[in-house]
Specification:
Helices cover about 85% and strands about 5% of the residues. The chain is mostly helical. It has a two-stranded parallel ribbon. Helix 1 runs antiparallel to helix 2. The N and C termini lie far apart (about 100 Å).
Length: about 110
């Protein structure tokens, strides 16, 4: 008789735990998914901002080397790094033509 009561209580407690933990786990999964989605959106906006800054810096340097009628070695290195990073972050082909023009400019001292 005692073991029947223990078994019955165990089943009741197990049912309560399962009944409570299922929705709790589901709520946690939903909360985590929402945070991931929010973070992904913030990451995308940061990436887009970085690409825009790289494009701006690239164009600014382009006008400087065009005015100099040549590119210094350190400027060429910076422009090549910006060009690669710009594309790695999803930038379009906007700066490819400019980079091609820079690659044909003479290297200054």
């Amino acid at each position: 008789m005692f073991s029947e009561e223990v078994r019955l209580m165990t089943n009741i407690i197990s049912g309560i735990i399962i009944g409570v933990s299922g929705p709790l786990i589901l709520s946690l999964v939903i909360l985590i998914a929402k945070n991931i989605k929010r973070d992904r959106g913030a990451h995308n906006r940061l990436t887009e901002g970085l690409v825009a800054l790289q494009k701006d810096r690239f164009v600014e340097m382009y006008y400087k080397v065009r005015e100099q009628k040549g590119v210094r070695l350190y400027q060429r290195d910076i422009l090549e790094d910006l060009h690669k990073s710009y594309h790695d972050l999803g930038g379009n082909s906007y700066i490819d033509k400019i980079m091609d023009e820079i690659s044909h400019m003479p290297t200054l001292d």
